[in-house]
Every structure is written in C-alpha cells, then in structure tokens.
Amino acid sequence: MPATYYAVVTIHVLTALFWLGGMFFLAVIGAPLLRSVEPPELRQRLFREMGLRFRTAGWIAISILIITGVINLHYRNWLRWDDVWASSAFWHSGVGHSLACKLIAVTAMVVVSAIHDFILGPAAGRQQPGSPRAIALRRHAAHLARANAAFGIIIVIAAVRLARGV
Question: Of 35, 50, 64, which is closest to residue 121 (Cα–Cα)?
C-alpha cells in the first residue's frame, strides 16, 4: 500500500477517536456535571452551548470519517461493482459481513446524529428550563446519544475485524 493509504487510515482513526472520545466525555462527565447546575436556566444555556460546540465539531468529524472511509475502500479495492458490491461471495465472507456491519452502523449513526443534533436537542433548548417537556426531550436526546455511542462501538469492532481481514 502507498504511504497515502496509511496517512488516510491514520486520519480516519484519529478522527474516530476524537468523535467517540467526545461523545463518551459528554456522556460520562459533561452531562452528569451539568445536571447538577442550578438554576435551570443556566443549566439549559450550558447544555445548549456545549451541544452546539460539539455538534459543529462532531459533524466535521463525521464528514472526515465518511471521506476517509471512502478513500480507504478505494485503496482496499472495495469500490468495484462486479468484484465487491454485486458479489454474493464477497458479502458472505467474514470481511463482507464486517464491512456490511460497519456500513449499516455508520448509516444508523448519521441518521441518529441528525435527529439528535437538529431535531431533539434544539427542541429541548426552546422549552421552558426545567419544564416537564424540556426534561422529556432531554431524556429522549440522551437515549439517542447512548444509541449513537453503541453504534460507535459496533463500528470500532467492525473496523478492527476489517483491519484483521476477518
């Protein structure tokens, strides 16, 4: 493989670390800490600001991951129609299963991220701080964030299997 392949893989892995690390930081440290902030108006403002900053960084990371992922597929010769995408033998192999799992999880992650970042999060931010509706929307957003973290873990497992040729 050429040096550019290894550079692209490195960028892909570092970006995945940034994105997943940011999600886990928010879930384990940021959100629990902010839940203890009073008054509710300040808590809501801090959640909104933190969410907007990570949303921007997160979508840049997702864009980089998709671009570098496609480039990685190119270098592995997995963008060919006849030998890969239309080949039942490829999709029935261990590598084909791993790639399918990763692609499905990436698609789910992008959809869940969009719902979380552009629908539920902003809707929660428009509610009266501390109101039952705001709390319910934040709870739904938190469930989506957890689902996204699970998709991220599935993606990492599939990526490791792909790198190992399994």
Answer: 50
Contact 137, 120 (CB under 8 A): yes
In the predicted structure, residue 31 carries a pLDDT above the cut 90: no
For the segment 77-101, what is each residue's pLDDT rounded down to a tens digit?
999 888 888 999 999 999 999 999 9
| C-beta separation of 97 from 91 below 8 A | yes
DSSP state of 128: P
Place of tokens 């570098």: 68
Among the listed residues 51, 52, 50, 60, the one whose alpha carbon sits nearest the alpha carbon of residue 11 = 60
Q: How far apart are CA 8 and CA 75, in angstroms?
A: 10
Q: Which contacts of 93-102 are long-range, i.e. CB under 8 A and separated by 24 or more positions?
A: 94/161, 94/165, 94/166, 95/161, 95/162, 95/165, 95/166, 98/158, 98/161, 98/162, 98/166, 99/158, 99/162, 101/154, 101/157, 101/158, 102/154, 102/155, 102/158, 102/159, 102/162
**Block residue for tokens 């892909």:** 12
Q: Residue 97: in which H helix or E strand, if any?
A: helix 94-115
Give the count of beta carbons closer than 10 Å to the beta carbon of residue 155. Answer: 23
Would you tell me how many other CB atoms lie within 10 Å of the CB of residue 89? 9
Give which of 76, 43, 60, 71 is closest to 117, Cα–Cα.
60
